[in-house]
Amino acid sequence: MAEVVLKDVKKVYDGKVLAVRDVNLRIEDGEFVVLVGPSGCGKSTTLRMIAGLEEITGGTVSIGDRVVNLTHPKDRDIAMVFQNYALYPHMSVFKNMAFGLTLRKMPREEIKRRVGDAAKILGIEELLERKPKQLSGGQRQRVALGRAIVRDPAVFLFDEPLSNLDAKLRVTTRTEIKSLHKRLATTTIYVTHDQEEAMTLGDRIVVMSAGRGTGVVEQVDTPLNVFRRPANRFVGAFLGLPPMNFVEGVLRREEGGVYFVGEADGVRVLMPEDGNANLEAHLDVPVSLGVRPQALSEQPIGAFAGRDNTITIRSDIIETLGKSIDVSTTLPSGRHFIARIDAREDFPVGEDVTLHMDMQHVHVFEPGEFGRNLLHPPSPETSPAMNAGEELAGV
Amino acid sequence: MSELKQPGMKPMAETEARARAGAVASGSDKPTGAGAHVSGRHPMEAGKGAQLGRTIAFVGLVVLGVMFLVPFAFQVLVSLSTVADVDLLTQLGFPPTLKPDNYEGVFEQVPFAKYYFNSLFVAGWATLLQVITCSMAAYAFSRVRWVGRDKVFLLYLGTLMVPGVVLMVPNFVIILELGMFDDYTGLIIPAAFSAYGTFLLRQFMLTIPSSLDEAAAIDGAGHWRIFTQIILPLARPGIIVLAIFAFLFNYNSFFWPLILTKSENLRVLPVGLLQFDSTYGSDTPKIMAASLMSMIVPVILFLLLQKYLVRGIQLGAVKG
Amino acid sequence: MIGSGRKRLLIALLFLLPNLAGFLLFTAGPVVFSLYLSFTDTSLTEHNRYSDASPRWVGLDNYARLLWGDESVFFWDYFWNTVFLMIGIPLSIFGSLALALLLNSKATPAKPKSRWLLSGVAAAFTLIACFGTWVLAAPDEAARAVMSTETGLTDLTVYEVQTLRRNGLTLFVGLVGVVVTAGLGIGQMFFRAAFYLPTLLAGVAMFLLWKTLYRPRGGLINAVLDPILGAVETMVEATPAWLWYGLGIATAALGVFLSVRLTVTGVGRLRHGDVGPAAFGTRVMLTLTLLASMVGLGVVLAQLPAKALLPSGYLPLTPEQSDRALASFEGELGGEYDELEFTAVRSNFERGPAFEDLVARLASIKSEEATARVQRHVAETTRRAAEEGVLSREEAVASVEAFIAEFDVASAPASQLRELVADPDRTPQLRVLVDAMSVALVRTFGERIADVLDPLAPADGAAFTKAGAGRAIDAVAEAFAGEFEPAAIEAVRRELTTVAYRDAYSQLVSIAGEDNEAAVAAILTETASRDRAGLTAGAGLEPPEWLISSRWAKTALIIMGVWLGIGGGNMLLYLAGLSNIAPELYEAAAIDGATGWQRFIHVTWPQLAPTTFFIVIMSTIGGLQGGFEQALVMTQGKADTIVLTYYLYNLAFNGNFQLGLASAVAWIMFAIIFAMTAFNFRFGSRMTNE
To answer: What is the CATH number of the domain that holds A86?
Structure first.
């Protein structure tokens, strides 16, 4: 079995710098898991610890049912695809792919067969005799993939493999990777800083952040869940393009229910009744309202349509995107606000417009970058931050 | 290899964190460049194997270091012996009689101070002139567009390929004809120019963005001012490298002074040492003392400017 | 840029002028001029401002003379010398790579704290070690009065020898300690600086240093080689000769076997397309090197018994044996040497000690005993230990008189002793007194020996012959039977009445020439006495004479060249190259399962290929032009060390100032360099692209 389990993994450099801590993950056999987060959040470090390229300061990493903390990378039954491809420049494509097998003394016929199969899958059969420097970026990446495939490992590790490709190539290669995974069904751990990649590729995604002084895991769940129920403000802001809007204010109980009131920006929104008990506990203290741009519409939308959940903004700048338009504005408090609504002609510019919110995509967060989601909290297993009774301030 | 040097989209902070944290740390036997790994229970070097390897490497370094330094230590001991005892030194390990006035004796037997002065004088002037002419020429080759620029530069490059032997004889004749034979000018003037130096500085100057020149021109600066106030300061590392190379080369230069000078008071250190050896060949201690004294200047220069020198060699070759 | 085209041209020329002038005058111009000269017969002795003659155009005449004409014998000889000296280049390159790898291996501690700590500890250790050496190797006080018996050191007392050795040893320990401390404290940069030092100081100063190092008798190199060779000799002596023959054959056979196997594997891989032709070419070159080395090693091993058999070469030839050897020598090689020199050698063989020397030598056998007896006497009479302080004059006089009486000291030494203690103003130290008394005893004894020898001495004060000395010693031994230890007498007999095998060998070879070495060895073999029958005799394993020997001089220059160059620019280039290798390649290789060695072969070495390529080209260009300064300073061209550049120098500046011919040499060299560079380029870029 090729499941990968990380238990309380932590990484300290030089006895002083804590790069990553408290990483607990269980990746099932055949799963495609993406580690995503901004620079410095420790995702590459974690991947490299799984690969054996970094020492594991604390905790354990297991592949299959073996703890591999001290096992040499070559004995962990893994294959890795690097951001810079790391192809041996003086060897042909064939030899690059065959290298690991040759070192393991596999019979020549077997090697030929495996390389041929992998080349066929990736469509690089005509390139086998060429050298890396004669290939384009996309082709090189495929060779790197091929090198990983021929090893038939228990786990694939990808370290930002698409970062060096241009935008279009990135998208097509992404799809190829996904279909490859479908075909081979090997456990895959993939690191990227691009949230779009994460959302499209992963069976589950692991959102990591660096803001609390070191790298930690914020949330682990399927892309949809993480998107819909971000554990905290950071996750909410990280996923989704354009990013989530935030309005500062307080929760007040008024007749009719619990309202979010942002006085500075003139915002007053009624919270759904089945709102979390958390809301009750946070009355009259500062909170942030998170509104996804896509959650706004000129018409009432969503489950709580028409129930006092509008916001009025002035449409300062309009950007047309085909089927939708992005309405950007600066709120009186100085914050930016973007709404993505269906396009229509004659949308007024520079005038006040009133937009309705879909309350299912509106969240209330505790203050601070890592303020927990009070309105739609995720299930506790998916977010260690939710569980830990620790200090969440660290603003 | 360019593929591997593509500016990585790898987030700066992670690489930075690794580099910051693991400046060197005892890593694997093979270099790992930036972002090295911490010692200890690293899976790539788990086990006694790698730790042992590193210890052996250190021992090897020490052994080699001692091997390289022992001859110098021997030289010091010889320079402090009497002539009669020199042959016994290897059996005894230490001079029976210490004779530090060997050093004084060198000055008495040959005009050593003059030799020293000559070497420093010639090397100093040659370096200064070379820096001036080469930087000016490099400016012309890199910051001014003119007809035939590249062709002339190619000509310069071409002569770099010509082996020095070819120039020995004709230069001798030319110096002779110009009346610079056996004179300081004969030693300094030919050394005041160097195709290699021009090449080095030109490559260096090419890395300075031309937008600086353009901005200065718009501000009203002429070429000379641009050269002195913008380019020269920015090219300082390259100039320092050239200066070091030029000085060392001229200080150690043996062959040209050998054929271009005759009289004793024009002798430079290498030639002087050779003369000393042929005349007083049996007085080994004094010869060793003289050699040691002549080594002082390069050693001091090296200790102070090591990193420029190292960088210069690597620069020169990469561009080559 | 700024200004019009013409203005720019003007400005550029202004900037360029001094440099360009120099360029045309001293570089571009001379190139053309040199080419012109090579087609003329210019010679400064003929064509100068005082003569009316002008140089003639001779076309390719100079070239013809050099390549196959009357100068060709020299030219090709020096060409071969130049090429031979280039053997050191691959060694130097690999050495630089090894040093770079070593420096890069992160063997030195990195964290500042651990550096301080470790180097502090090392410094402390060094001090302790030095102190310990100083104390433990302290000289033996009792040896103050004993003269050393080691060759060359007979002017010093054993005490002095020990003191000096202790000093030297402490210095050495200190040096090692400093290196370790600096290495730990400063790290890689220290070692890099140490390795770079020879390159930095390149030039006459270094050559002079190495001249001293290469001295056959007092130089450091032979001082290190001597014991090693001595150890090998002892080993060979102690083991049967067939062992070495066998070992030699086995090594050579192993070499052949491995080479064949490597070639076969290589061919197999080539055919299967696993590797390209360039890699195969490398394999072939490495295989040939391996084959040559192992067969060479095998030959050396097999010949060891022959060469090393007479361990110290001190096996003595008696006068009779010397006579026979000389007679055979005359018979077989007569006419191949100078008669006068032969006469000199003969008299060397025959000449023994002078009368006084024989007496002194025999008497000195007793010196230790004498000293001991004197010390006892003094202790008894003065009730003081022999080393303590100063006697009063009365005590001294009394002791001396008692001594003279008891030991029946001869008159001359006795009066000397009395004089010693007579001076009222100076009373001698006890130690000095003891020494003087011992000497007196020895001299007394010597007088008795002289009495025995007197009738046997040659007439009119001539020295004994070796044969005569032998007979004299026999007489003395008989007369003083029981008073001499047999071993001591034997040592004296050996020393004074025989020719050492080694000395005989070298003296005969020096007059017969190195070509006749084997014949001389054979002659001496037949006449020398041996304990091991059936084996041929050699001269012992002697360290070579390096710069004096035409066989070893070039090798000496090669070795020095490697030492001088190995830590220099090439090493720095490799260091830069190593730091440019992307770490991911190593990581990928590690994941693929490569061991350290495999990582070197598949990642490091190929990535360094462009650097290696550059280094090989520059080294070739430099090597073909080099060797001049070394040869000039160290051998003045003797011992067959003239290289092409030296030849050029001789032609142009020594002798007839034949500038035309010299220029032709330069251009031929240019052509060779060009061809080799082009070849390297072609061959090399195919390799780097593989």
So the answer is: 3.40.50.300
